[in-house]
Amino acid sequence: MKNRYEALIVLNVKGGDDAIKEAIDRLEAGFKAEGATVEAVQKMDRRPLAYVTRKVETGYYVNFVFEAEPAAIEKLRARFKLDKEVYLQYYQKLSAKKAAA
Description:
It contains 3 helices and 4 strands; from the N terminus they run βαββαβα. By secondary structure, it is α+β, with helices and mostly antiparallel strands.
């Protein structure tokens, strides 16, 4: 049974809008490759990080809302961990109340 999830992904992308669009398209294709159905992609712009680690001071935040099998979350984490432009990734299962909104 598929559940609704939200993924907040912070990208460490050098370059302009073309590089960001390319990275987001690649991430969306990764979701689809793992059997997820992407409902929404919210581009939240570049923001400063709370802590400077690995010499990264800012990141481009992208929020994905998608439906997937629970087992797909670990596969997505592993897939995106190998992507050099994915700096951080957080996943949250949306509750039934939030899913209806």
